[in-house]
Amino acid sequence: MKHYAMSTRTISDAVNTGGLLVVAEWEAKEGQADKVAAILDSFLPEAQKDPGAKLFLIGRGKDNPAQFLFYELFQDEAALKAHQDSDYFKTYIAGQALPLLAKRERAQYVLI
Q: What stretch or stretches form a coiled coil here (predicted)?
């Protein structure tokens, strides 16, 4: 993956106004990790352009490359819903990546 965070904002800019934080952990099925990484490489630039997304970070496991960690900050619940309803999310995540996963966990937080 080439891009990890919003290129036009700093982390400080993103978090100073609060928002809804989504943390997700994925684990690819055996033999599917590189395919998942390629899908995420196409997905991430689209997600970063989303007007309701304040910050997007995706990491791949150093010791286990089948693991992926998402750290996403949205303006609010409506922005998260718009993200999940977007064509790019439906194409890359729902349509391509999710069938390749053995595990998917998500949690939401409000910044303090």
A: none
